[in-house]
Amino acid sequence: MLLQRYRDSQRLNHWLIVLLFLCAGLSGLAFFHPSLFFLSNLFGGGPWTRVLHPYLGLGMVIAFAFLAARMWRDNLWISADSQWMRQSPAMITGAGKEGVQPAAKYNAGQKIVFWVMVVTLTLLLVTGFMFWHAWFPEGNILMRRIAVVLHSASAAILILTIIIHVYAAIWVKGSFRAMTRGTVTDTWAAHHHPLWHKEAKERPRA
Q: What is the pLDDT of residue 95?
């Protein structure tokens, strides 16, 4: 038996964010260090990369805002999440899986990823505007330099977070199909998200 985990519009929104993240990330890395400048060839050279990067980043933030508006309630911290965090080392090592606290639609690790994305994308948006020369040519030099440092640090944290997110999706077998087909198996839901599974089973069918 299969359970609906994501609607088509949510999956389309998610994959749009993925596409824009890759484009914004690669175009940003092209300017992060001279050894990575070759990445600008993917966007038509240095000048075009500099023009496109802010728009790609802005598009990613807007796309994420739509997804976050639909998912933030499911990512609020509940008491079970604190217990999940305390017992997560045993789960990772495989030493005490049976003792892990049940998770709702998202477990504590997924919620941390969500809120890290909220914070880092907000910082990237604000700091990005502060040194977007095409639209805001005037500005305090010191503030611009601080914005560049914060922008780079936020981008690095976001990239590391996304790597962990992707690794976890691959590591937990059966997770990937939720974002490709929109469904998960009844066994997967009962094993990894028992609170959400119980809620889904008790929900009246439309």
A: 66
**Burial class of 10 by CB neighbour count within 10 A (0 to 12, 13 to 18, 19+):** middle
Q: How far apart are CA 23 and CA 10, in angstroms?
A: 20
> Interhelix angle for 79-93 vs 108-130, to 10°?
100
Provide the 3-class DSSP secondary structure of residue 131: coil
The answer on pLDDT for 160 being more than 70 is yes
Burial class (CB in 10 A: 0-12, 13-18, 19+), 155: buried
**204: three-class secondary structure by DSSP:** coil
- Helix (H, G, I), strand (E, B), or coil: what is residue 184? strand
Burial of 34 (0-12, 13-18, 19+ CB in 10 A): exposed
Question: Is residue 56's pLDDT more than 60?
Answer: yes
- Residue 193: name the closest of 84, 116, 54 by CA: 84
The confidence score (pLDDT) of residue 84 equals: 87
Q: Global pTM?
A: 0.90
151 in active site: no
* Residue 175 backbone phi and psi in degrees, to 5: -75, -35
Residue of 14, 33, 151, 165 with catalytic role: 165
103: left (phi over 0), alpha (psi -120 to 50) or beta: beta
**Residue showing tokens 């937990």:** 172
